[in-house]
Design a protein that fits this description.
This protein has about 600 residues and is of the alpha/beta class. The protein has 22 helices and 20 strands. Strands 3-4-5-6-8-7 form a 6-stranded mixed β-sheet. Strands 9, 13, 14, 17, 18 and 19 form a 6-stranded antiparallel β-sheet that branches. A 6-stranded mixed β-sheet has the order 10-11-12-15-16-20, with helices on both faces.
Length: about 600
Amino acid sequence: MKKLWFDAFALLFFVLGTFGNIWVEEKRNGYSIVYTSMDSVNIKDYDDYFKKGIGEVVNFFNTPYKNNFSIYIHPNRKSLDSTWQKDWGLPDFKSQCWMVASGISEKLDIISPKTWDSLSCEHHYADTIGTYQLIKHELVHVFHGQRNKSPDFSTTNGIDWLVEGLATYASGQCDSTRISEVKKVISSKEYPQNLNEFWKGNSKYGLSGTMVMYIDDEFGRTKLLSLLRYNHLMDVLNELEITEEELIGNWKYFVEQLNVELKTVADSISGLMSKHHYNPEELASEAYIELEGKVQELAKKPQTKQEFVDGYNKLWTEGPFSHVRLAKMEQPAEEIANYIDSLRVGDQSVSLEWINKTAMLTVNTMMGVDTQEHVFEAYRQIAEKRTDTLIIDLRNNEGGTFAGIPLIGHLVKDTTDIGMFVSQKWWRNNTNEPTIDDIKNLQPWKGWSIKTFWKDVQDNPLTRVQIVPMYPHFEGPVYVLIGNKTASAAELTTDALAQLENTTTIGQTTAGKMLSQKMFDLPYDLQLSLPIADYFSTRIGRIEGKGVNPNITIDQSAAKELSLALIKGEKLEDALAKVQEKLSNKEK
């Protein structure tokens, strides 16, 4: 046995020989990962699952793990079998093909997930949701073992349904498919009459999982946590102050009332997030885990589909990131991109007026082919009328698609990198935020199609956003009016304009909702919008959650008045004082 210490990297490498393999140990906060050199390239991907799973288990119980533990990643089935033979005292034991992992108080053993396609008959690493839920299932066993009188569950009596049902329920494996199976078992009157039978047969995961779901719903999470110490059925029933017959009867009624449709939708939302969200790390955050739990609770309540949609969107008003919305499907997601690419929103999107030699260009949305056309036409008129000064009003602009490109393009003198979109592929392989150096060798994205953009931004780790000069060029002073409704593509535009020397931004900090979203279809004619890419400005970095600050801060309702005063030549201090006085008088 040989140990190598690298204190500078806060890593402990533990090397030993097993079947000719070299094992390495890396310590984390609360757990260690032990793996062979074969898996060195996979550890970051696996650790994303481990960190998220541990966080969700802790959040589920609202209690941390009691002890540190180890996660052993076995390179093959022979290695896993050898461990189980020793741990279980069964020297001739050979695992069945579906068996890939186990968890007890001190450790989790798992065959390297990327080998499952060849070493397992049921599990596939490409099934990201299934892979994650299996890992989380075993992490629940670890948590349970650390609180049970039998840390390895070897001396439990009559609570197999609780051990496995808890892991099934808390991991998210008690999904709509399993609930539907249990409903069929109940309707056919083939459900078990005693708890020992719950962990038997083809429906054992669903039966046991829904029993724990019922206990959680009826008795509460604190009571459920208190059951983890017991290793005997009678102790569990006494803690709940209920008979076995009463427990099964109440469970039956509970399952019969469950809304499988809404549970299906909630599970599908979770799956889409895991598959398409731009940064897996954010899905491991305490805020997201808590919100996802609330969504699952919402889905268990008897209600209409519209009530669920409204409740979901209300939860997300305080969500950890923007651009998430649930809605009834108007048309399939695949058709929406084509619709947006040809959408014309009407003349109300852009207005242009003159105040003497000052042009007031109001852009209310970045959506619409005609909005782009109106912006091009506005700059033509601005040049034709020999305008001295330009005011661009984005205070009510909540974003859209590409109308910001000409809005910026007619003001830049030189080709300018303004930022980059960042997809899941970047965060899968990087922990650092991207900078301009990371995009300098990339071809900038070009085009006007949201359908093409959505594909490209997901296919590439980084998407370079570069603005080229457009003509006619306006080079006079520019004032950009912004407020807390200025969002998404309008924030990208605001930030890009703020890079120009002749531009002054006035108003309030923008909304801080700068992500790129895409729509995905859900079961039962619902549709989810979720963010597929983050955005980082070359000037100020990430905008999401922070917004773009103005050069001059004033209540957004007074931004126009202040800009006109400055255009007239008033000193900033004097103009601000006058405007502030008017605002104060209005409040009185």
